[in-house]
């Protein structure tokens, strides 16, 4: 049974994690996630990816300890998760985590690998690893500090206490908190609006945000097809219509 289900809604792809009972990730599930990321990257019709949980009350609980406890080489455990989450982070298309329940341990690393995080009111975030004698291993700490700052990251990591959605938003962990009943609809609506934007510009912004050469990213989109369409639509007072993303700068081409 597949752990991830990829559904398309026009230019928006919805990647649903469904691995009972608690959406915990073993090696096979991580490999499936990597393949799904590659499929999204290669599909020029998909412009935005939404990742969410398909089990009530749970987004993702990180690594499946029943599986990973049998892998005694820490570098191998770390490598697999880091590589796959890096694939998600470096997708050349916007990604949104629709957080619909509990986020535990490195399940937060998956959410943090996305560009935006929108949580339901029922969402909670907890990093219990220190209570079990280890720490998150899938590049969570770096992303967490970048998103929330060291003080907030310390609170989550050193105490292991759960944080509710409103507090998570105040920390900078999530961008927005919405009703549990409307979460997916709200996220897909936002994703569709993003899908109407210039794919080339979105790709260049992602590249710059991930440490690419900002000057090259700017120069790669200036006076190109999307630029001409965008500027013309601005002065013509009409809605721009963009085609598939074309070739970007050398740095941008490393995305994905």
* Content-based structural category: alpha/beta
Point out poorly predicted stretches: none
The largest sheet, given as strand count, sense and whether it forms a barrel, is: 6 strands, mixed
CATH class of the largest domain: Alpha Beta
CATH superfamily of the largest domain: 2-enoyl-CoA Hydratase, Chain A, domain 1
Strand order of the largest sheet: 1-2-3-5-7-10
What series of H and E elements makes up the topology? EEHEEHHEEHEEHHEHEHHHH
Say what the CATH topology of the largest domain is: 2-enoyl-CoA Hydratase, Chain A, domain 1
The total tally of domains equals: 2
Strand residue content: 15-25%
Report the total helices: 11
Euclidean distance between termini CA atoms: 26 Å
Global shape: globular
Question: Would you report the number of β strands?
Answer: 10
Computed CA radius of gyration, to the nearest angstrom: 19 Å
Overview of this structure, please?
The chain is α/β, with parallel strands linked by helices. Helices cover 44% and strands 17% of the residues. The chain contains eleven helices and ten strands. Strand 1 (4-9) and strand 2 form a beta hairpin. The mean pLDDT is 94.
Q: Which key phrases capture this entry?
A:
256 residues; 2-enoyl-CoA Hydratase, Chain A, domain 1; Lyase 2-enoyl-coa Hydratase, Chain  A, domain 2; 2 domains; 6-stranded mixed beta sheet; 11 helices; 10 strands; 44% helix; globular
């Amino acid at each position: 049974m597949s752990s991830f289900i990829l559904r398309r809604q026009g230019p928006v792809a919805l990647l649903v994690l469904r691995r009972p009972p608690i959406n915990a990730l073993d090696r096979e599930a991580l490999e499936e996630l990597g393949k799904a990321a590659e499929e999204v990257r290669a599909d020029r019709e998909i412009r935005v990816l939404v990742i969410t949980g398909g089990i009530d009350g749970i987004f993702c609980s990180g690594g499946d300890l029943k599986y990973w406890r049998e892998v005694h080489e820490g570098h191998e455990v770390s490598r697999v998760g880091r590589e796959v989450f890096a694939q998600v982070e470096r997708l050349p298309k916007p990604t949104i985590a629709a957080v619909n329940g509990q986020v535990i341990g490195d399940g937060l690393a998956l959410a943090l690998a996305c560009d935006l995080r929108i949580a339901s009111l029922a969402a909670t975030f907890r990093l219990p690893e220190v209570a079990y004698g280890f720490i998150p291993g899938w590049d969570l700490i770096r992303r967490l500090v970048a998103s929330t700052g060291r003080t907030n990251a310390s609170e989550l990591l050193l105490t292991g206490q759960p944080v509710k959605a409103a507090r998570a938003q105040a920390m900078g962990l999530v961008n927005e908190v919405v009703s549990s009943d409307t979460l997916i609809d709200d996220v897909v609506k936002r994703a569709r609006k993003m899908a109407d934007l210039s794919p080339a510009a979105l790709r260049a912004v992602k590249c710059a945000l991930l440490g690419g050469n900002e000057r090259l990213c700017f120069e790669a989109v200036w006076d190109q097809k999307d630029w001409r369409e965008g500027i013309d639509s601005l002065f013509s007072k009409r809605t721009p219509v963009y085609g598939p993303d074309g070739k970007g700068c050398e740095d941008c081409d490393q995305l994905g």
